[in-house]
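>> received
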Amino acid sequence: MAKKFKIKKGDTVEIITGDDKGKRGEVLQVLPKKDAVIVAGCKIVKKAVKPSEKNPEGGFINKEMPIHISNVRKVEGGES
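>> returned
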């Protein structure tokens, strides 16, 4: 049976634990198999990439990584 979360893509959430505690952002993706979400602007890491046609230089890119669903809280529309 598929897992159901109260958080959906496009919702605004607040990080409640970890290095990004207190930050708010929009959910870019929900990963039900990993019980995780990807939040815009939170948990950013530098990732090494090989040269390719899309990125001929290669080097490093900044990328958002998944955050466990238990570490985020949905923010209601009225709060700012």
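>> DSSP finds no helices and seven strands in the chain.
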